[in-house]
C-alpha cells in the first residue's frame, strides 16, 4: 500500500487519499480502489509479463475511449459513465513507471457493479446489448491504428499448438495427471481451425472487437441493471465478432462459476444463452452477417474450448500466466470449461435454433 501511495503522487489528483484497497477479481492485472473525499479512482498495475508493451496498451485504450466518448456525446449520452476517463500523470502521460512496473489510473464509476455470476437474467440481456453496441461504436474505428497487444490472442489454432508444446515440454511434470483432459482437446482439434479458416477466406469479416467479454468486464447500474460501461479494454484488437459473443456465453451462461470443482454443477443455462443472444442480436442487427449468425452457437463452444486449453496449458507450464488462488486452480478451471464444452455439444442444435428464431424475429 505504501508503494501505491508513492505511485499516486505521480497522478494529477489534488485530493487527500483516504483509503487504498485491492479490488476486483481479474486474473491478470492488479487492481486497487482509491477513495478520496470527492472521487474514487481505480489504480491498476498492468501485468507486463503478459502485455509486453504497456505503452501500446494505453495508446489503444485511450484512442478507443476517445472514439467512444465522441460517439456518446453525439448521441447525447453521458460520456463520463459510458466510457473510462483516464487520469494523466503530472508529466501528461497515462502511465506511471515505478521499479519497472507500469501503473494507470481512471475514475471509479459510482453505483455501478460488475457481477461474477448472473443474478437477474435481464442483466445478461443488457450485457448482450452493451457488447453489441460496443462493437457498433467501434465499427468505424481505424483498425490499422491498433497495436496487437497480445499476439494471436484468439487464434485457436495457435492456442492448440501452445498446448502441444506445453505437453511435450512438460515443465511442471504434470503431464501424466492430465491425460484425460489432453485427449478431450485433441479429440476436438478440428474445431480449432474453423473460425480462423473463415477469417482467412474472407467469409467472416475482421472487426474491432473487445476480446475479453466476461460478465465482470461490464459495469451495470446498481439500481436499474442497465449496462453502463464496457471495461477492461486491454485486448481491444481486430478479431471476429464471434470471439466476443462466444466468450461472453462461456462465462456468463455457465450455471456455475468458472472455477467450480463440482462438475455436476457446470452446465449451459439455455435461458441465459437466449437472453444474451436477444440483446446481442438486437444491437448488431443490420451489421451482423449471415455467416456470423450461422456460427454464433458454435462460437460459444469454441471459445470455451479455447479458454479450457489455455488453463490446461498454464497448468502444464507451472501456473505462470493466470493468477491462481489455490493448488490445482488452473486444472479446476480447465476441467470446468471442458465440462461446459460437453454440455454445449449436447445442446448445440437447441442453441442454433434459438439464434435462428431470434434473428428471424428481428
Ligand atoms: P482485470 O484486467 O484484472 O480483469 P479490470 O479492468 O477488469 O481488471 O478491473 C477489475 C474489476 O474492477 C472489474 O471487474 C470491476 O469490478 C472493477 N472496476 C474496474 N474499473 C472500474 C471502474 N471504472 N469503476 C468501477 N469499478 C471498476
Ligand atoms: C483473463 O483479465 P481477465 O480476468 O478479465 C484473460 C481472458 C480469459 C479470462 C478467463 C488478457 O481475463 O482472456 O478469457 O481471464 N485475459 C487475458 O477468465 O489473458
Ligand atoms: Mg477484467
**What does the largest sheet look like?**
5 strands, antiparallel
- As a percent range, the share of helical residues equals 40-55%
Mean pLDDT: 96
Record field, number of beta strands = 10
> What strand line-up does the widest sheet have?
1-2-3-5-4
Structural class: alpha+beta
Name the overall outline: globular
Count of discrete alpha- or pi-helical segments spanning 4 or more residues: 13
State the low-pLDDT regions, or none.
none
Report the portion of residues in β strands. 5-15%
CA radius of gyration: 20 Å
What is the string of helix and strand elements?
HEEEHHEEEHHHHEEEEHHHHHH
Tell me which ligands are bound.
adenosine-5'-diphosphate, 2-acetamido-2-deoxy-1-O-phosphono-alpha-D-glucopyranose, magnesium ion
For the termini, the CA-CA separation is 51 Å
Report on the structure:
- Helix 11 packs antiparallel against helix 12 and helix 11 crosses helix 13.
- A hairpin with a 2-residue loop joins strand 4 and strand 5.
- A five-stranded antiparallel sheet has the order 1-2-3-5-4, with helices on one face. Strands 6-8-9 form a three-stranded antiparallel sheet, covered by helices on one side. The chain has a two-stranded antiparallel ribbon with strand order 7-10.
- The mean pLDDT is 96.
- With 362 residues, it is an alpha+beta fold.
- The protein is built from 13 helices and ten strands.
- The chain starts with a helix and ends with a helix.
- It is globular and about 55 Å long.
- 2-acetamido-2-deoxy-1-O-phosphono-alpha-D-glucopyranose binds next to loops.
